[in-house]
Amino acid sequence: MGHLKLEILCLVVGSVVALLALNIDSALANTGSNADEEGGPVFVKEPPSKVDFSNSTGAEIPCQSRGTPQPEIIWLRGDGTAVGDVPGLRQVLASGALVFPPFRAEDYRQEVHSATYICLARNSIGTIHSRDVHVRAVVTQVYDTHGDQEYIIKGNSATIRCKIPSFIADYLDVVSWHDSDGNVYKLDNRGVFEDGKFVVLPSGELHIKDVRPEDGFKEYRCQTKHRLTGETRLSASAGKLVITDPQGSTAPRLSGDTQISGFARMGMKGSTFGLICPSQSFPPGIFKWYKFTDGSSRQPVQLDDRLKQLGGTLIIREAKVEDSGKYLCVVSNSVGEESVETVLTVTAPLAATVEPAVQTVDFGRPATFTCHYQGSPVKNITWMKNGKRLPQTEAVIRIDAVRREDRGMFQCFVRNDQDSAQSTAELKLGGRFDPPRLTFKFREEVLQPGPKVSLKCKATGNPSPEIVWELDSKKVTNADRVQVGQFVGENGEVVSHVNITNVHSNDGGVYRCTAISKVGSATHTGRLNIHGLPHVKSMDKAQVVAGSGMVKTCPVAGYPIDAVIWEKDNRVLPINRRQSVFPNGTLVIDNVQRNMDQGTYTCVARNAQGYTSRGNLEVQVMVLPKITPFNFGHEPLPAGEYQTLECSVAEGDLPVQITWSFHGIELASQMGISTVRIGKRTNLLTIDAVAASHMGNYTCQATNAVGSANYTAELTVHVPPRWIVEPTDRAFAQGSDAKIECKSDGFPKPSVAWKKAAGDGPMDYRDLKGSAPGMRVEDGNLVISAIPKQAEGYYLCEANNGIGAGLSAVIYISVQAPPQFEIKFRNQTARKGEPAVLQCEAKGEKPIGILWSRDGKRLDPKPDPRYTIREEILSNGVLSDLSVKRSERTDSALFTCVATNAFGSDETSLNLIVQEPPEVPFGLKVLDKSGRSVQLQWSESFSGNSPITRFYIEYKMSKSDWNSGKDRVLVPGSQTMASVYNLRPATTYHLRLVAENEVGTSEASQSVTIITAEEAPSGPPTGIAVEPVDQHTLKVTWKPPLREEWNGDIMGYYVGYKLASSDKPYLFETVEFSREVGKEHHLMISNLKTYTEYSVVVQAFNRIGPGPMSKEVAQHTAEGKPDHAPQDISCTTLTSQSIRVSWTSPPLASANGVIKGYKVIFGPASSWYDEKTKEIKATPSSEIILHGLKKYTNYNMTILAYTNGGDGIPSTAVSCHTEQDVPGPPTAVKASVMSGDAILLSWQPPSQPNGVVTQYTVYQRTVEPKESEATSQKIPSFQTTYEISGLKRKERYEFWVTAHTAIGEGQPSKSATTSPSNKVPAKIASFAEKIVATHRDEVKLPCQAVGVPAPEIKWKVKGQMLTQSNRLRVLPDGSLLIKEVTRKDAGDYACKAENSNGHDTIMHTLVVQAPPQPPSISLAGATGTAITVRLKSPSDSAPLHGLTIHYKQDFGEWEATQIPPNMSEYTLEGLNCGTRYQIYATSYNSIGTGEASDILNTRTKGQKPGVPSAHKFIEVSQNSVTLHLSSWDDGGCPMLYFVVEYKARHQSDGWTMVSNSVKPSGNYVVLDLSPATWYQLRVTAHNNVGFTQAEFEFATLTLNGNQVGPARTNDNGRGLLLEVFPWLPEWVDYNMIVAGCAMIVIIVVGLAVICIAVSRRNRGPESFRLRDEGLYAQPDMRGMTLKREFRDELGYIAPPNRKLPPVPGSNYSTCDRHKKGMNHPTWNGRRPAAATGVPHTYEELANGGGGIYYDDHPPVPPHAHSDDSSLYSKPPNGVPGQDEEICPYATFHLLGFREEMDPSKGSNGLTLPHGSTTLPPPGHGHHRGGSQSAPRGSNTTRYGRGPVGSGVVSSVAGGGTVGPNGIINPPNHVFSPEYDDPANIEDEYGYNSPNRRGSLGRRSMGSMRTVPIPESPSPPPPPPRPSDSPNSTPSHSQMNQSNDSKESNELSEAECDRDPLIRNRNSVSGGAPGNMSTEEMRRLIENRNQNEAHSIPNGLTPYDTVNV
């Protein structure tokens, strides 16, 4: 049964494995459908092909790839084995990088540090390899370089080399040479140095041209640089020149090995090469360089800027691949010539690309990948698929029919000897590919015989699969009881059944269903067990090849089966180690051998009852053929020999067939070759006569039924040379290219050599070298380029290969020379007016005649004396000169020279060009210009017969002169149009043109003048510095850009900042430009995060726009304290006095700086509350051991981290208990005599028990009359007395006590000695103690006494005798018991024991500890988010452990926080702003918590939001309005949200809600508005204090971007009066009412003034009388006006044609305000005094209990900056009181007044406040849209209007009061005069003296009430900036930023004179709207039809809007 269970288990496991395999196979098969989701690996960062590094630096080789799923990175060696880590030498990182750390020289390992590596990336899609990575580590070694010593003949060029050791040569570069005179010859960035005489070549040689004797006195040292380490050093020794004088003429000779081998150079594309030709001769030779083309012909090297010849060295810069080839240097002088060849190989980096990179192909379709590669040279191309090599070597790989296994990654590799490259492509399988997948599988079953059995499998796939069934590896077919069926279901599934009727036990076995299609298969295996006896089924004969393995499973039926075994020759297997038998009946034989394994095997199956079944298996072992090795011998065979070769098959089953093949073609009896079979195993190959045609590979192949084998041998034949082309005599014309063929063949290949006869006869043949220039041998052929006459003679051609005597042939070459000109045509130039000589030299057989012609006509010099002809006979020809005395322009012609001799004629042409400078260019004009460039065009003049090489455009600034201030632009001579760049914007330039040719330059053309346009700044600000101010603030400082980069006037700066790690855009602040030259600008950026790095940029802007940003400057804010405590704190007790504490650092984000270390605060837990008992130890590490602790003590400890910003938050305390130790001695010991033989010993426990005392030991001994040994007695730990009896009276005893803990026995106590006695006085055995009791507990004061007679016990309490009660009573043992102890029970308690023999007394001190007394709490201070309280705790007997502060806001829940007991002040932070809080405190100690203190009621500071000015808040466009939410004043409390609503102004129904939850940061845009429409906007701002609601009016822009004119109403004030007096009837004439009221007021006031004036003229003090000058000095008088004389005295001069501004408080401008129905403010002197009683100078009176006011912020007077008692604060009920009335200031505007005072402000007709620096300049229209700016302090100047002309009207709700007419009164706002009122202008108009101001009398006209004017009025000074004033509060800032205005009751006379529409203008634009001029704007306004205007609800008539 056990074996059967094991078999079943194996079957189950096998089934599971099969299922897993099936699932995996299905998953792989389905990857085609997931192709879009998955992707094979692709290298993102491929390692380089070559990595050299120093052992001192190490190296890291990256390898990164991408793919889906993410690929795995594995590094391989060059042989494909995986790379592992080698400690200290090599490491593979998790990122995929291969790291070689720095290592010592002795640790160098070649297999690690000099090897080839490959990076492999793989995922489920496929595998890819990187290019080969050649790694080479260089071990630092000591080396020296040396200068070479060169021997040179004077006048030649010398080359000094830098000798570098070979082991370091690959890594050293020569960078410069230094001579002994201090000169340095350093390679430039193009890799060469040249200064005329000295040249440093790219290869490092120093080339010295034209060597002179003085050059030999210098020394030359080379400086090298190590490419890996960067080390530079000079050579250890210097190179020198040894110069010799020439000894006669010397032919050129090459130095060194170049005489034989020449040079070879190799390098990368783009490098610089120097090809040297080291030769010496005298006279110095002439060098010529040639390059071989087409392998044979050579061409002179064409020199240019890239190819340059320096002496004999050819310099090739920026080398190209085409430069590769063989170069020939020919050096010659009058004595002879020499040549040397140099092979140059220029390589280019390899790169490869496979196309397509990804292709998806359906099953069976073709696929093609093409590898495109670049670089040179390319040695081979290889392909890999999924990391395995493919046989293809072409650039294209084709797959005819894609199969499933073709899916994966394909790679193309391109390689050469130095480099390699690869590219990757992926082949995906298309949607048609769907391999079979089993969707239903039959289950394994155990059945009884008889019933029907049906096994079913279902499969899907495309194409539809076929299902095949097998039973025990045999196919199941239809039989009587077995039927196999298959059909296709509705959903395309293939369903197959095996149905068995009346199942028998023999039907059992392993069934397998296999779904097969052409794209794959899927299999399921399961066993069907039928109960029955064992039955082994028959098995077919098995044929196995020798050497392979055999696996056979016994087909067993029946169930259950107990065991299955195999036998052979009646022996149970296994019988050797190659055999294995498994419990399921599987037999496995490895490496099958015929002689051992062939035979009959028997399978035996047995059940538990012993029934068995047997079955035989015949195994036949077959053997492959094996051929005995053969060969033709080890030496080549001579031609004609007879040869045989035998092929014998040593092993293998017969029959065997033997065949021969030659080069893969089967041989028969042919070509003199025959084959003969000898026996069954041999075949003989015979060659009758070996010939060259028989050379090759001969293969014998043996084949039998098992397989085949082959063996190959190579035949080599020696063949003597024979002619293919035999040379013959030849004749050539001189100068032609001669080629004489001489070809032969043979084996080995014959070598062909040419020689030339030294004399005239055919003998004494010598090598060709030096015979004639251009003579060479190519492929056996003699080639002579441009054959000269000296090449004529006899030549010998020899062919030899070592076989036989060889071949030779003698020929004669003759050279015929007709006249010849080396140059057929040339141009010759001559300067006009100078002589010219034309020469032609003809070479050839003499005599030679010369004729000259000019332009085709024969030239006769006789008629023109300027021409002369002269001839000179040369050794090899004739030289003829034609001279022209003075060249003229007409001499430009074509001259022809014709030479003639007997062999022919030749001619040459000379084109004489008479040249002169070009004429002046003309027609210079400007085509286009911009801020930095101008485009010019001109017409070309006469070139002077010399091509104009270039034009010079000369230009200068208008202030410069042409001699010193001009610049030039070079223009090619072929152009007549060019641009001048790099001009300065907004600058005047003069430009002119000059032409130049090779002869000279022309005169300059007429100049043109241009003015460049303005541009945005081209440079960033300079000197940018960022410094941390504190943990949340950075200070940015900078200076303006360079002046030449302004490109206009700088208007300001944008300062942007953001988190350095963020990719979000910058937040920008705007800073105005300071006109002070060189002034440094700065900006404080606040509200930043602690110790966070911020990036800051600064950008300047001008009228055109912003310039470039500066470079990012990163800076951290100051370090703060860590926000979190250290984590994972643990402590471990080490000893009784030491503890180890460890922890981990707090989160990095909470460190707020660099953690410098940690502080461990520890102390005993029992006194943890007491700071004095705590100790602090600092450590930089995360672990510390605390020493010197108290023994057996529980310690608390906390840990905090600290930075430079301070200590962080301490952690929660953890506790650790020190270990026990031996105790200290008992504190005290008493020995009290009890009787004559007994003593009572008492003691106190040890003061330092150092653990749990387990027992005491009492020691005693006799000391008198003689000492005895001590005896001891163990006493329990709870007992501190011990009665010792049996003592003797006459002896004296000594006693002492020790204590014990678990550790051991402690120190002994002090000893006590005594003697027993019959007389026993009273003695108290107890000890006096300080007893600490807890409140309400029960306490017992001990008093144990002894004595005879028994003593009497008496107690005294605090000095008084004890009166016993139920609470205080004496116990029988003398102890005093006190119940429910209270504080009153504390004190001294005395116990006295007395008898007749004596008395004794002890004193106890009782300390009662109770909960602490309540502390006192008071307010110390408050801010917007914090409250500081002052605490005081009463002293108490019990130590105070701490205090608890409880607080809550109104209607909130109580919160609590604990503080140390010694803290006298504490700040509650994080509170809500402007909120009332209740606070109380309690104290606690070890007993408990005491009573609470009184409740403190207070509140945090803060107010409701303050309304901003409209021009800062609102920015309008055509269809939207942008709201700058940051302009709102938060009142000291953070904003929560905004509610935004709007409606059209003419709309009578409700508001349109835009959003009720607008976030308070940044900007908010209201969209979908109509252009050119007036709107009302209502915004409600919420913070913790409350909300403020404000209404604004604005008009959207027109479609063309202009502003909308004002809407007016002409109801003569009817609407306003109806709002104030709704009861007036309709028939009332409102104009008459207003006029009448005004008249009455004027008459009354006038009469009063007259009366007062008359009365004071005659009475009163002298100083208060009226003067003739009209100046009234009495300060409380009204009706005073400022006369012209006094105005002149004050320095005020009215502008021409302008009327004076009104004097505040006067009736000067009351003109016809009532008649026109307008209300205007009147300045009123009534203002309640401050603490000093000094009033405000002016106050604007409200009309009708309220006022409508405009939106500018008047400054806050200095005395307004105070606490809640300020005169400018509003009482809680919102109504102004006696001391809190709101008195805003009005404004006056005299149109044109400021233009006269400052002409610069009036250039555009604008009326701007004089001296204002806050208004934008005209035309400054750009803004930073969409950027978010942090709030900054107000920039309000004295007159504080800001940009005006916006046409925006605002009112305030939620903080103001509404009058009966609906007009809103503002709270908490103070206004000041804003325009140029003389009384408010200090420096400019002479009003800088308070005394002179105070002397003015003022009156108020048109007011509804009369208010007395206090003395000494004085206008308020300008307000301080909120950021500059330390005393400013949020409420003041809120005041300063109001946008509300008052109605005006007064107009200046100048305003009365203007059109009413203009007169009511409330603001002035910073620039003409829509870029209109002032006059255009006025005409637009004056021509506007007033009937088109519509009413403004509050009666205001603004006429203009501006885009803010």
Task: Give an overview in words.
By secondary structure, this protein is mainly beta. Helices cover 6% and strands 41% of the residues. The chain is built from 13 helices and 143 strands. The strands form 39 sheets. Strands 24, 27, 28, 31, 32, 34 and 37 form a 7-stranded mixed beta sheet that branches. Strands 2, 5, 8, 9 and 10 form a 5-stranded mixed beta sheet that branches. The chain has a 5-stranded mixed beta sheet with strand order 33-39-38-35-36, with no helix packed on it. The chain is extended and about 175 Å long. The two termini are 99 Å apart.
Rg on CA atoms, Å: 59 Å
Poorly predicted tracts of residues = 1-36, 257-262, 1663-1975, 1980-2004
Task: Characterize the main sheet.
Answer: 7 strands, mixed
| DSSP strand content | 35-45%
| Mean pLDDT over all positions | 79
Number of helices: 13
> What is the percent of helical residues?
under 10%
The number of E-state strands comes to 143
Sheet/helix structural class: mainly beta
Produce the secondary structure layout.
Layout: H1 2-29, E1 39-45, E2 50-54, E3 59-61, E4 64-68, E5 72-77, E6 91-92, E7 98-100, H2 110-113, E8 114-122, E9 127-129, E10 133-138, E11 146-147, E12 149-153, E13 158-160, E14 162-163, E15 172-179, E16 184-186, E17 193-194, E18 198-200, E19 206-208, E20 220-226, E21 232-234, E22 240-244, E23 250-254, E24 263-268, E25 273-275, E26 279-282, E27 286-293, E28 297-300, E29 307-310, E30 313-316, E31 325-332, E32 337-355, E33 358-361, E34 367-376, E35 380-385, E36 388-390, E37 396-399, E38 408-415, E39 420-429, E40 434-440, E41 445-447, E42 453-462, E43 466-471, E44 474-475, E45 482-488, E46 494-500, E47 509-517, E48 520-530, E49 532-536, E50 542-545, E51 550-553, E52 556-559, E53 563-568, E54 571-572, E55 579-581, E56 586-589, H3 594-597, E57 599-606, E58 612-622, E59 626-627, E60 637-638, E61 643-651, E62 657-662, E63 665-666, E64 673-678, E65 682-687, E66 696-703, E67 708-715, E68 717-725, E69 730-733, E70 738-740, E71 743-747, E72 751-757, E73 765-767, E74 775-778, E75 781-784, E76 793-800, E77 807-816, ...
Parallel strand pairs: 2-10, 12-22, 24-32, 33-39, 41-48, 50-58, 60-68, 69-77, 79-86, 117-125
Antiparallel strand pairs: 1-4, 3-7, 5-8, 6-7, 8-9, 8-10, 11-14, 13-19, 15-16, 15-20, 17-18, 18-19, 20-21, 23-26, 25-30, 27-28, 27-31, 29-30, 31-32, 32-34, 34-37, 35-36, 35-38, 38-39, 40-42, 42-46, 43-44, 43-47, 45-46, 47-48, 49-52, 51-56, 53-54, 53-57, 55-56, 57-58, 59-61, 61-65, 62-63, 62-66, ...
